[in-house]
Amino acid sequence: MFFRKNSPALKIEALSSLIDRSVTIVGEITFDKSARIDGVVRGNLTGSLSKKNVLIIGPQAEIHGDIKCSSLVVLGLIKGNISSSYVEIRASAKIQGDVTYETIEMYQGSELTGHLFRLQGGSITETPDIQTIEELSEPAAKTPLIA
């Protein structure tokens, strides 16, 4: 099984922005401090990369667009690409898109349809393909045991 190491401490002093689940926004969003989204956003989200901000995508949130920020915690649905130094994908999260990261933490039960790209020394490397459970359970070509 997997053993959790101590994850980097995310410091959320105070959320400067909160988008409630009753809110739908169509358009681009930029933020400088930490933010939480529980509603629907149809557009890209961009946070300051020079500051330690955290974007939290709540369990009922839907994001239809790309996300670029310093730290990201995902509990809801994202349909778009992600670029973040730290990405935490919780069990209820569903991501449809590519994820570019320096550090990533994925919880059991989370769903990711896309590619993972790790930032390493300023360059991007794609993580190797991993076989799915279905591929592992397919029987190998049968060969007779007795010739």
Describe this protein's structure:
By secondary structure, this protein is mostly beta strands. It has one domain. It is about 5% helix and about 45% strand. The chain contains one helix and 16 strands. The strands form two sheets. Strands 1, 3, 4, 6, 7, 9, 11, 13, 15 and 16 form a ten-stranded mixed sheet that branches. Strands 2-5-8-10-12-14 form a six-stranded parallel sheet, with no helix packed on it.
Secondary structure blueprint with pairings:
Blueprint: E1 17-19, E2 24-26, E3 29-31, E4 35-37, E5 40-42, E6 45-47, E7 54-57, E8 62-64, E9 67-74, E10 77-79, E11 82-89, E12 94-96, E13 99-106, E14 111-113, E15 116-120, E16 123-126, H1 133-137
Parallel strand pairs: 1-4, 2-5, 3-6, 4-7, 5-8, 6-9, 7-9, 8-10, 9-11, 10-12, 11-13, 12-14, 13-15
Antiparallel strand pairs: 15-16
